[in-house]
Amino acid sequence: MSGLKKSLGMFDIIALAFGAMVGWGWVVLAGGWILSAGTWGAMLAFLLGGLAVILIGVTYAELASSMPITGGEHTYTHRALGVNVSFICSWSILFGYFSVVAFEAVALPTVVEYFIPNYNQGYLWTIAGWDVYATWVGVGMLGSVIVTWLNIRGMEVSAWFQKTAVVGILFVGILLFIGAALYNPATSTAIQAPAFIGGAAGVMAVIVMVPFMFVGFDVIPQAAEEIDLTRPNIGKFLIVSITIAVLWYIAVAWSVGTTLPLIQAENSTLATADAMTNAWHGKWAGILLVIGGVLGILSSWNAFLIGGSRLLYAMSKAHMLPAFLSKLHPKYNTPVNAILLIGGLATLAPLFGRKMLVWIVDAGGFGIVIAYTCVAISFLVLRYREPDMVRPFKIPAGKLVGMITIALSFGLLALYMPGMPSALTAIEWWIFFGWTVLGVALYGYATIKYPGKSEAIMAEELRELKIVNQLWLKDNPPKK
Question: What is the distance, to the nearest Å, from the Cα of residue 134 to the centroid of all Cα atoms in its chain?
Answer without folding.
Answer: 29
